[in-house]
Task: inverse folding
């Protein structure tokens, strides 16, 4: 039994000692039957907080991850059966169902996607790898074995650098009070470490990838529960559409030390795979699934409860990730987690459960568990619990053996899709690898001068990078056409500098919102949660500008109108909405003309507009007050400004209109 504790003394003591007042969301305060324990999601340290015991740090969490990512290719790994969504058991092939006498035919699209994935994770790619059979019996595995690469993987020795993840707290209904955004967590006690001269401020963690292997997926089992006359019946149905789909399994070393690090690592790998286009990363749909290997290690008695001692310990712990702490317990595998929230909750639960077992002198042994999602309550404060499905005594002997029907996989020119056998693996990777996320971020900062926040939004959706580039290029071309032909005009070069920022702002603030709104049309909003995964699970694709109805060229044309000041920013938003929702082919210039979106910038026209308002008999009282002068003349100027802008339909150029208004007021006052 685990529940939330209410020992305010313990909470305040730990926060005061470690400076945790600003990190409330990072601490889980838990009570078990025998002990009061607290888990820090940032550092992975488990604390004993019982008022009857000395408050002290007890254990460090040790975590490794295994990710199964379904490759985004048109057919299955060893058969021509399609991988697109379909009615259950309609996309199947005799080989995928284990029919005797059927033979595999390796998909080279899967091989190439695996190479791309391994390269994105900085793995060493082996020119020769082998397939083997992993034997176990389960209804969703019709052949009785899985074809995999356990001992001879395609890639190994990779490295991923990522930022730790902070779980966003759900916003309560009716809560309009602004709160400090939690964002991504920073390294715990960074300021203290800097003061001690131990480390520079940084938020990145490195995770070593042990291997990346190509293998088959299994079928999908769905269990239904029915109750009739107090009798509960469980019925399982198996969909073999997924059986035989191409997977890559990514296995890490146990380098992670907290729930937030585990979630951050999975999120970074998901982003990398989506960036190179090998997996859509939709955890809620099972395209990417995560298994955790969790264990705990007792802390040395020398680690005392003080900010300096804990900071030094965290620093040393993070320097020596490649070495397991002494007396690390047996690892427990938690299978098939399909969201970042589940990863965090399962890590917390396991760390606290194992800590309690260790304190009761009954340490956890090797076992496999699954995470059961439950509504958050007093009984399930973490939103679920892990449940044992196999213990060490029940461990399966997989009886690995070389796959006799598939020859060794040799990455030569023919396998890589080249007619020339002289093409090397290095040449192939150089040809197909897109710009990395880090390279894209650096380029957007250097070439476009965008802020880190805007860059983060853009690179989170890979197609947005290309769309922005197209928009910037189209806008520059159009500005040159409009303004560059004027002899002696040096403004085009000056105005070019504003194009990337204008394009990025329209993309991030407006186009993304239109894409999301369009994606959710026709979906019953009442059935959706606040989580982005809930929204995407109701669709057949991720929410991405890849599916935008406005391409980069049309967006660039709109940006060029902002640059030459023929429209205002508010007009641009309205035009973009029409381009997206109503007129999918017309140029923004045509839409502006039809809807009379035009900036009045001619000084004579603005002066006439100002005179019509200032000299209007309806405004004679305000004009007389302005002539008398005084400290409130600015209010009268503001009054006239609003009236003139309204009469212009919002089309008057604000700055030039201020100049025209000043001229008119000066003339009528003299």
Result:
């Amino acid at each position: 039994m685990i529940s939330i504790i209410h020992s305010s003394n313990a909470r305040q003591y730990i926060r005061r000692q470690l400076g945790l007042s600003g990190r409330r969301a990072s601490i889980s305060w838990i009570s078990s039957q025998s002990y009061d324990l607290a888990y820090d999601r940032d550092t992975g340290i488990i604390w004993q907080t019982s008022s009857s015991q000395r408050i002290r740090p007890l254990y460090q969490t040790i975590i490794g991850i295994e990710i199964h990512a379904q490759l985004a290719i048109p057919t299955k790994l060893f058969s021509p059966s399609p991988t697109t969504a379909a009615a259950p058991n309609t996309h199947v092939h005799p080989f995928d169902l284990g029919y005797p006498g059927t033979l595999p035919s390796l998909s080279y699209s899967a091989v190439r996607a695996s190479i791309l994935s391994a390269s994105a994770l900085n793995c060493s790619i082996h020119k020769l790898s082998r397939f083997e059979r992993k034997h176990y019996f389960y209804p969703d595995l019709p052949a009785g074995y899985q074809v995999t690469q356990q001992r001879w993987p395609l890639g190994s020795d990779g490295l991923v650098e990522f930022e730790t993840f902070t779980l966003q707290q759900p916003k309560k209904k009716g809560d309009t009070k602004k709160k400090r955004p939690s964002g991504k967590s920073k390294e715990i006690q960074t300021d203290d470490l800097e003061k001690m001269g131990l480390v520079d401020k940084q938020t990145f963690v490195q995770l070593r990838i042990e291997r990346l292997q190509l293998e088959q997926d299994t079928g999908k089992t769905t269990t239904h529960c029915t109750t009739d006359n107090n009798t509960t019946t469980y019925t399982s149905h198996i969909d073999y559409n997924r059986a035989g789909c191409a997977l890559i399994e990514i296995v890490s070393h146990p380098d992670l030390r907290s729930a937030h690090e585990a979630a951050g690592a999975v999120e970074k790998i998901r982003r990398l795979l989506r960036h190179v286009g090998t997996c859509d990363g939709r955890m809620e749909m099972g395209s990417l699934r995560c298994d955790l290997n969790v264990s705990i290690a007792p802390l040395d008695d020398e680690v005392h409860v003080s900010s300096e001692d804990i900071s030094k310990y965290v620093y040393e712990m993070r320097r020596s990730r490649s070495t397991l702490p002494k007396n690390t317990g047996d690892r427990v595998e938690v299978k098939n987690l399909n969201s970042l929230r589940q990863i965090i909750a399962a890590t917390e639960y396991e760390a606290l459960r194992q800590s309690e077992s260790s304190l009761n002198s009954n340490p956890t042994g090797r076992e496999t568990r699954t995470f059961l999602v439950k509504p958050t309550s007093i009984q399930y404060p973490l939103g679920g619990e892990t449940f044992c499905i196999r213990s060490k005594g029940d461990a399966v002997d997989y009886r690995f053996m070389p796959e006799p029907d598939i020859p060794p996989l040799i990455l030569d020119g023919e396998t890589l899709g080249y007619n020339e056998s002289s093409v090397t693996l290095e040449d192939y990777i150089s040809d197909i690898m897109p710009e990395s996320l880090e390279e894209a971020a650096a380029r957007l900062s250097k070439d476009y001068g965008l802020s880190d926040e805007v860059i983060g939004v853009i690179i989170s959706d890979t197609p947005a990078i290309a769309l922005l580039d197209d928009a910037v290029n189209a806008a520059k071309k159009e500005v040159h056409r409009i303004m560059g032909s004027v002899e002696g005009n040096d403004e085009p070069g000056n105005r070019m500098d504003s194009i990337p920022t204008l394009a990025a702002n329209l993309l991030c603030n407006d186009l993304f919102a239109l894409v999301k709104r369009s994606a959710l049309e026709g979906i019953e909003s009442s059935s959706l949660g606040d989580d982005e995964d809930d929204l995407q699970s109701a669709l057949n694709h991720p929410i991405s500008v890849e599916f935008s109805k406005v391409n980069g060229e049309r967006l660039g044309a709109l940006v060029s109108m902002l640059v030459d000041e023929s429209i205002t920013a508010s007009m641009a938003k309205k035009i973009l909405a029409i381009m997206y929702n109503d007129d999918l082919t017309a140029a923004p210039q045509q839409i502006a003309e039809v809807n009379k979106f035009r900036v009045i910038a001619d000084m004579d026209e603005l002066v006439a507009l100002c005179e019509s308002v200032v000299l209007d008999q309806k405004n004679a009282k305000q004009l007389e007050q302005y002539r008398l002068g005084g400290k409130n003349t600015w209010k009268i100027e503001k009054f006239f400004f609003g009236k003139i802008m309204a009469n212009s339909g919002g089309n008057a150029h604000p700055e030039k209109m201020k100049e025209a208004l000043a001229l008119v007021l000066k003339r009528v006052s003299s």
Remarks:
- The mean pLDDT is 82.
- The longest helix spans residues 462-483.
